[in-house]
Write a structure and sequence with these properties.
The complex is a heterodimer of chains A (119) and B (108). Chain A is mostly beta strands and 119 residues long. Chain A has no helices and eleven strands. The radius of gyration of chain A is 13 Å and the shape is globular. In chain B, a hairpin with a 6-residue loop joins strand 3 and strand 4. Classes of the chains: A mainly beta (119), B mainly beta (108).
Chain lengths: 119, 108
Amino acid sequence: EVQLVESGGGLVKPGGSLRLSCAASGFTFSSYSMNWVRQAPGKGLEWVSSISSSSSYIYYADSVKGRFTISRDNAKNSLYLQMNSLRAEDTAVYYCAREGDRGNGMDVWGQGTTVTVSS
Amino acid sequence: SYVLTQPPSVSVAPGQTARITCGGNNIGSKSVHWYQQKPGQAPVLVVYDDSDRPSGIPERFSGSNSGNTATLTISRVEAGDEADYYCQVWDSSSDHYVFGTGTKVTVL
């Protein structure tokens, strides 16, 4: 079964850091680009970051650029999001999502992990 | 930055057709993807590349894209179609993905 499982969410104070992980299974992880997408409480979907299969191409939303770092370990079938200098507006459910093999949408999503930034 | 605008809500009776629009500057030149999200669940891809359906998605879901508007059409609407729907494109000028504002579909 194709599956993505996020972990690492939690409560953190403003200015703090957190590292999210996404474990992939059931497919050849190293062949796919991957994404992080977040959703603030009661709000819509917001793309956060993308990374190509070999990490050659990395993109960030303006709202997180310079604070978040996306990475992957193809040997461990894992995707990561290092989040620094966290703000209250980073509070959201964070989803990892697989990019279709021809860039045709995000075809597999995890169940999400919740990040709460509050003092 | 590129903006995608959707109506906040669409209401439809069971068995009727729901049409959800996604407006963006010259969106017809981009590939549009559509996602369904039910409460407390992760999004699900229902249409990709304007009008293609992933395996397992009913034929009742279809899409079109031209000019400044893309449209997701749900035919013969069922109670289980009640959800939030989001359009999405890749904006090559900024190397960003962009999601639409989202539309809540209510089945009357």
